[in-house]
Predict the 3D structure of the following.
Amino acid sequence: MQGLIGKKLGMTQVYDANGHHIPVTVIEVGPCVVLQRKIAARDGYEAVQVGYLDQKPQRVNKPQAGHFKKAGVTPKKIVKEFRVDASNAAKEGDTLTAEILEGVTYVDVLGMTKGQGFQGVMKRHGMAGQPAAHGHTMHRRPGSIGMRTTPGRIFKNKRLPGHMGHVNITMPNLKVVQLRKEDHAILVHGAVPGPTGTIVVVRKALKKG
Amino acid sequence: MATKLLEKIDQEQRNGRSVPDFNVGDSVKVYVKIREGDKERVQLYAGTVIARDGTGSTETFTVRRISYGEGVERVFPVYSPSLEKIEVERSGQPKRAKLYYLRALSGKKTKIKEKVAKEDRAEA
Protein backbone atom coordinates (compact mmCIF):
# COMPACT_ATOMS: atom_id res chain seq x y z
CA MET A 1 0.00 0.00 0.00
CA GLN A 2 1.28 3.42 -0.85
CA GLY A 3 -1.37 5.74 0.51
CA LEU A 4 -1.93 7.74 3.68
CA ILE A 5 -4.54 9.95 5.29
CA GLY A 6 -3.40 13.51 5.80
CA LYS A 7 -4.31 17.10 6.36
CA LYS A 8 -3.85 20.07 4.05
CA LEU A 9 -1.69 22.62 5.87
CA GLY A 10 -1.59 25.37 3.26
CA MET A 11 0.26 26.61 0.22
CA THR A 12 3.59 28.33 -0.24
CA GLN A 13 6.37 28.33 -2.80
CA VAL A 14 9.81 26.75 -2.90
CA TYR A 15 12.78 27.14 -5.22
CA ASP A 16 13.91 24.25 -7.39
CA ALA A 17 17.45 23.46 -8.55
CA ASN A 18 17.13 25.93 -11.45
CA GLY A 19 16.14 28.77 -9.17
CA HIS A 20 12.53 28.80 -10.35
CA HIS A 21 9.92 29.12 -7.67
CA ILE A 22 7.19 26.54 -7.79
CA PRO A 23 3.82 26.67 -6.04
CA VAL A 24 3.40 23.84 -3.56
CA THR A 25 0.78 22.57 -1.17
CA VAL A 26 2.07 21.34 2.17
CA ILE A 27 0.21 18.22 3.30
CA GLU A 28 0.72 16.51 6.62
CA VAL A 29 0.65 12.76 5.92
CA GLY A 30 0.18 10.36 8.76
CA PRO A 31 1.31 8.92 11.01
CA CYS A 32 -1.51 6.48 10.48
CA VAL A 33 -2.05 3.26 12.41
CA VAL A 34 -3.28 0.00 10.96
CA LEU A 35 -6.61 -0.95 12.54
CA GLN A 36 -7.39 -4.03 10.52
CA ARG A 37 -5.90 -6.13 7.76
CA LYS A 38 -8.74 -7.42 5.59
CA ILE A 39 -7.96 -10.63 3.73
CA ALA A 40 -9.70 -12.28 0.80
CA ALA A 41 -10.38 -15.55 2.64
CA ARG A 42 -12.26 -13.88 5.49
CA ASP A 43 -13.45 -10.52 4.17
CA GLY A 44 -13.69 -11.20 0.44
CA TYR A 45 -11.05 -8.64 -0.52
CA GLU A 46 -7.59 -7.47 0.41
CA ALA A 47 -7.30 -4.13 2.18
CA VAL A 48 -5.63 -2.26 5.01
CA GLN A 49 -7.82 -0.22 7.31
CA VAL A 50 -6.00 2.73 8.83
CA GLY A 51 -6.85 5.42 11.34
CA TYR A 52 -5.61 9.01 11.57
CA LEU A 53 -5.76 11.66 14.34
CA ASP A 54 -6.65 10.78 17.93
CA GLN A 55 -10.23 10.92 19.08
CA LYS A 56 -11.33 11.45 22.67
CA PRO A 57 -12.34 8.08 24.16
CA GLN A 58 -15.75 9.44 25.24
CA ARG A 59 -16.55 10.35 21.65
CA VAL A 60 -16.55 6.75 20.37
CA ASN A 61 -19.37 4.28 20.94
CA LYS A 62 -18.83 0.81 22.37
CA PRO A 63 -18.61 -1.14 19.11
CA GLN A 64 -16.07 1.35 17.76
CA ALA A 65 -14.12 1.33 21.02
CA GLY A 66 -13.93 -2.45 20.79
CA HIS A 67 -12.64 -2.24 17.23
CA PHE A 68 -9.83 0.10 18.27
CA LYS A 69 -9.06 -2.00 21.34
CA LYS A 70 -8.68 -5.08 19.16
CA ALA A 71 -5.97 -3.32 17.18
CA GLY A 72 -4.40 -2.16 20.44
CA VAL A 73 -4.53 1.55 19.61
CA THR A 74 -6.18 4.69 20.93
CA PRO A 75 -9.44 5.76 19.24
CA LYS A 76 -9.03 7.53 15.92
CA LYS A 77 -11.03 10.29 14.25
CA ILE A 78 -10.66 9.29 10.63
CA VAL A 79 -10.82 5.69 9.46
CA LYS A 80 -10.22 4.71 5.85
CA GLU A 81 -9.33 1.66 3.82
CA PHE A 82 -6.72 1.15 1.14
CA ARG A 83 -6.85 -1.80 -1.25
CA VAL A 84 -3.57 -3.75 -1.26
CA ASP A 85 -1.99 -6.88 -2.72
CA ALA A 86 -2.26 -10.13 -0.81
CA SER A 87 1.48 -9.92 -0.20
CA ASN A 88 1.16 -6.76 1.94
CA ALA A 89 2.73 -7.39 5.32
CA ALA A 90 0.97 -4.67 7.34
CA LYS A 91 -0.55 -5.89 10.57
CA GLU A 92 -2.77 -4.42 13.26
CA GLY A 93 -1.12 -1.79 15.42
CA ASP A 94 1.55 -0.92 12.84
CA THR A 95 2.31 2.75 12.34
CA LEU A 96 2.56 4.00 8.78
CA THR A 97 4.51 7.18 8.21
CA ALA A 98 5.54 9.30 5.25
CA GLU A 99 8.31 6.76 4.67
CA ILE A 100 5.97 4.59 2.61
CA LEU A 101 5.90 7.38 0.01
CA GLU A 102 9.69 7.22 -0.36
CA GLY A 103 10.74 7.18 -3.99
CA VAL A 104 7.29 8.13 -5.27
CA THR A 105 7.43 10.87 -7.93
CA TYR A 106 3.73 11.40 -8.61
CA VAL A 107 0.81 11.19 -6.20
CA ASP A 108 -2.96 11.43 -6.39
CA VAL A 109 -4.64 13.59 -3.77
CA LEU A 110 -8.27 12.87 -2.90
CA GLY A 111 -10.34 15.37 -1.00
CA MET A 112 -13.51 17.36 -0.74
CA THR A 113 -13.70 20.65 -2.63
CA LYS A 114 -14.85 23.90 -1.09
CA GLY A 115 -18.64 24.23 -1.10
CA GLN A 116 -19.84 27.08 -3.31
CA GLY A 117 -23.58 26.86 -2.47
CA PHE A 118 -26.32 27.25 -5.06
CA GLN A 119 -24.75 28.74 -8.15
CA GLY A 120 -25.95 29.87 -11.56
CA VAL A 121 -24.86 28.47 -14.90
CA MET A 122 -22.15 31.06 -15.55
CA LYS A 123 -20.12 30.13 -12.50
CA ARG A 124 -21.16 26.49 -12.32
CA HIS A 125 -20.79 25.50 -15.98
CA GLY A 126 -18.90 28.40 -17.50
CA MET A 127 -21.76 29.41 -19.79
CA ALA A 128 -21.47 32.81 -21.47
CA GLY A 129 -24.69 34.44 -20.27
CA GLN A 130 -26.14 37.39 -22.15
CA PRO A 131 -24.87 40.92 -22.83
CA ALA A 132 -24.86 43.26 -19.85
CA ALA A 133 -26.20 46.38 -21.59
CA HIS A 134 -27.73 47.75 -24.81
CA GLY A 135 -31.30 47.04 -23.78
CA HIS A 136 -30.84 43.47 -22.65
CA THR A 137 -33.05 42.42 -19.78
CA MET A 138 -31.55 38.94 -19.43
CA HIS A 139 -28.01 38.75 -18.07
CA ARG A 140 -26.87 35.57 -16.37
CA ARG A 141 -29.54 33.08 -17.39
CA PRO A 142 -28.92 29.78 -19.20
CA GLY A 143 -30.98 30.77 -22.29
CA SER A 144 -32.99 28.14 -24.12
CA ILE A 145 -32.85 24.73 -22.50
CA GLY A 146 -34.62 22.66 -25.13
CA MET A 147 -36.64 22.33 -28.37
CA ARG A 148 -40.41 22.28 -29.08
CA THR A 149 -43.19 19.66 -29.22
CA THR A 150 -40.53 17.28 -30.42
CA PRO A 151 -38.98 16.05 -28.17
CA GLY A 152 -41.31 17.83 -25.72
CA ARG A 153 -39.03 17.30 -22.75
CA ILE A 154 -35.73 18.46 -21.39
CA PHE A 155 -32.84 16.08 -21.91
CA LYS A 156 -31.28 14.47 -18.91
CA ASN A 157 -28.03 15.97 -17.64
CA LYS A 158 -28.98 19.40 -19.03
CA ARG A 159 -26.61 21.84 -17.36
CA LEU A 160 -28.65 24.08 -15.07
CA PRO A 161 -28.15 26.07 -11.85
CA GLY A 162 -27.67 24.08 -8.68
CA HIS A 163 -25.38 23.20 -5.82
CA MET A 164 -21.71 23.56 -6.63
CA GLY A 165 -18.66 22.23 -4.84
CA HIS A 166 -18.47 20.10 -1.68
CA VAL A 167 -17.85 16.97 -3.70
CA ASN A 168 -15.08 14.43 -3.40
CA ILE A 169 -12.60 14.74 -6.21
CA THR A 170 -9.23 13.26 -7.09
CA MET A 171 -6.38 15.46 -8.20
CA PRO A 172 -4.39 12.98 -10.27
CA ASN A 173 -0.65 12.95 -10.95
CA LEU A 174 0.63 15.76 -8.76
CA LYS A 175 4.40 15.93 -8.70
CA VAL A 176 6.11 15.36 -5.37
CA VAL A 177 8.40 18.32 -4.78
CA GLN A 178 9.71 17.31 -1.38
CA LEU A 179 9.14 14.50 1.09
CA ARG A 180 9.83 15.57 4.65
CA LYS A 181 9.85 12.38 6.65
CA GLU A 182 10.86 13.99 9.94
CA ASP A 183 7.95 16.46 9.67
CA HIS A 184 5.48 13.81 8.45
CA ALA A 185 4.80 16.04 5.49
CA ILE A 186 4.82 16.03 1.72
CA LEU A 187 5.04 19.00 -0.65
CA VAL A 188 3.17 18.54 -3.90
CA HIS A 189 3.18 20.79 -6.96
CA GLY A 190 0.01 22.83 -7.31
CA ALA A 191 -3.28 22.98 -5.49
CA VAL A 192 -5.29 20.28 -3.77
CA PRO A 193 -9.04 20.29 -3.01
CA GLY A 194 -10.58 21.99 -0.01
CA PRO A 195 -9.66 24.69 2.47
CA THR A 196 -6.62 24.59 4.74
CA GLY A 197 -7.11 21.96 7.43
CA THR A 198 -9.18 19.66 5.25
CA ILE A 199 -8.64 15.90 5.45
CA VAL A 200 -7.17 14.44 2.28
CA VAL A 201 -5.88 11.10 1.09
CA VAL A 202 -2.46 10.97 -0.56
CA ARG A 203 -1.58 7.89 -2.56
CA LYS A 204 0.92 6.86 -5.19
CA ALA A 205 -0.41 7.95 -8.58
CA LEU A 206 -2.33 5.11 -10.19
CA LYS A 207 -1.81 6.28 -13.76
CA LYS A 208 1.66 7.80 -13.76
CA GLY A 209 5.22 7.01 -12.67
CA MET B 1 -3.19 30.81 9.35
CA ALA B 2 0.37 29.73 8.96
CA THR B 3 1.32 26.56 10.76
CA LYS B 4 4.69 25.94 12.35
CA LEU B 5 5.72 23.71 9.47
CA LEU B 6 4.89 26.36 6.88
CA GLU B 7 6.96 28.85 8.86
CA LYS B 8 9.82 26.36 8.96
CA ILE B 9 9.70 25.84 5.19
CA ASP B 10 9.56 29.60 4.74
CA GLN B 11 12.67 29.99 6.90
CA GLU B 12 14.53 27.26 4.97
CA GLN B 13 13.83 29.02 1.69
CA ARG B 14 15.31 32.24 3.03
CA ASN B 15 18.32 30.63 4.72
CA GLY B 16 21.69 31.39 3.24
CA ARG B 17 20.42 34.43 1.37
CA SER B 18 21.69 37.77 2.55
CA VAL B 19 19.47 40.52 1.32
CA PRO B 20 20.24 44.18 2.10
CA ASP B 21 17.68 46.31 3.81
CA PHE B 22 15.96 48.26 1.07
CA ASN B 23 12.66 50.01 0.68
CA VAL B 24 10.31 51.44 -1.86
CA GLY B 25 11.87 54.51 -3.43
CA ASP B 26 15.44 53.23 -3.28
CA SER B 27 17.63 53.06 -6.36
CA VAL B 28 19.02 49.55 -6.58
CA LYS B 29 21.30 47.45 -8.73
CA VAL B 30 20.12 43.87 -9.18
CA TYR B 31 22.63 41.28 -10.36
CA VAL B 32 20.59 38.62 -12.15
CA LYS B 33 22.07 35.23 -12.95
CA ILE B 34 21.23 34.17 -16.47
CA ARG B 35 21.72 30.67 -17.78
CA GLU B 36 22.44 30.21 -21.47
CA GLY B 37 22.76 26.53 -22.24
CA ASP B 38 25.17 25.36 -19.57
CA LYS B 39 26.94 28.71 -19.24
CA GLU B 40 25.97 31.15 -16.56
CA ARG B 41 26.50 34.88 -16.61
CA VAL B 42 25.38 37.84 -14.56
CA GLN B 43 23.27 40.65 -15.93
CA LEU B 44 22.90 43.99 -14.23
CA TYR B 45 19.50 45.58 -13.90
CA ALA B 46 19.37 48.97 -12.20
CA GLY B 47 16.36 51.10 -11.39
CA THR B 48 13.96 52.35 -8.75
CA VAL B 49 12.05 50.05 -6.43
CA ILE B 50 8.42 51.01 -6.87
CA ALA B 51 6.74 48.22 -4.88
CA ARG B 52 7.31 45.43 -2.43
CA ASP B 53 4.67 42.73 -2.23
CA GLY B 54 4.03 39.74 -0.06
CA THR B 55 5.70 38.43 3.07
CA GLY B 56 8.29 35.86 4.05
CA SER B 57 10.03 33.83 1.37
CA THR B 58 7.39 34.72 -1.20
CA GLU B 59 8.05 38.45 -1.03
CA THR B 60 8.72 40.22 -4.31
CA PHE B 61 9.86 43.68 -5.37
CA THR B 62 9.29 45.63 -8.56
CA VAL B 63 12.10 47.62 -10.17
CA ARG B 64 11.31 50.28 -12.74
CA ARG B 65 13.79 51.83 -15.11
CA ILE B 66 13.77 53.73 -18.38
CA SER B 67 15.50 51.64 -20.99
CA TYR B 68 16.12 53.24 -24.41
CA GLY B 69 13.29 55.69 -23.76
CA GLU B 70 10.87 52.94 -22.82
CA GLY B 71 9.71 52.27 -19.26
CA VAL B 72 10.53 48.74 -18.13
CA GLU B 73 9.43 47.02 -14.93
CA ARG B 74 10.71 43.72 -13.60
CA VAL B 75 9.42 41.81 -10.62
CA PHE B 76 11.96 39.78 -8.62
CA PRO B 77 11.43 37.49 -5.66
CA VAL B 78 13.47 39.00 -2.82
CA TYR B 79 14.99 35.66 -1.79
CA SER B 80 15.42 34.17 -5.28
CA PRO B 81 18.58 32.12 -5.77
CA SER B 82 18.79 33.57 -9.29
CA LEU B 83 19.77 36.92 -7.82
CA GLU B 84 23.46 37.10 -7.18
CA LYS B 85 23.18 40.24 -5.10
CA ILE B 86 21.21 43.40 -4.62
CA GLU B 87 22.99 46.72 -4.10
CA VAL B 88 21.36 49.83 -2.73
CA GLU B 89 22.68 52.87 -4.58
CA ARG B 90 20.59 55.60 -3.03
CA SER B 91 17.88 55.56 -0.39
CA GLY B 92 14.70 57.40 -1.21
CA GLN B 93 12.10 58.87 1.06
CA PRO B 94 8.81 58.38 -0.77
CA LYS B 95 5.42 59.52 0.45
CA ARG B 96 3.61 56.41 -0.80
CA ALA B 97 3.98 52.67 -0.22
CA LYS B 98 3.63 51.97 -3.95
CA LEU B 99 5.13 54.33 -6.51
CA TYR B 100 2.86 53.41 -9.40
CA TYR B 101 2.37 57.12 -10.11
CA LEU B 102 5.86 57.16 -11.63
CA ARG B 103 4.47 55.34 -14.65
CA ALA B 104 2.66 58.45 -15.74
CA LEU B 105 5.64 60.77 -15.23
CA SER B 106 8.94 61.27 -16.97
CA GLY B 107 12.14 63.24 -16.57
CA LYS B 108 12.68 65.42 -13.54
CA LYS B 109 9.30 64.59 -12.01
CA THR B 110 10.33 60.99 -11.42
CA LYS B 111 12.91 62.10 -8.88
CA ILE B 112 12.36 60.89 -5.36
CA LYS B 113 13.52 62.85 -2.33
CA GLU B 114 16.66 61.32 -0.91
CA LYS B 115 16.57 59.91 2.56
CA VAL B 116 19.04 61.54 4.92
CA ALA B 117 20.13 59.66 8.00
CA LYS B 118 19.22 61.32 11.32
CA GLU B 119 22.80 62.04 12.44
CA ASP B 120 23.63 63.67 9.08
CA ARG B 121 20.63 65.91 9.40
CA ALA B 122 21.76 67.11 12.82
CA GLU B 123 25.13 68.23 11.48
CA ALA B 124 23.69 70.23 8.61
In short: DSSP finds three helices and twelve strands in chain A. Chain A touches chain B through 15 residues (CB under 8 Å). Chain A has a mean pLDDT of 91.
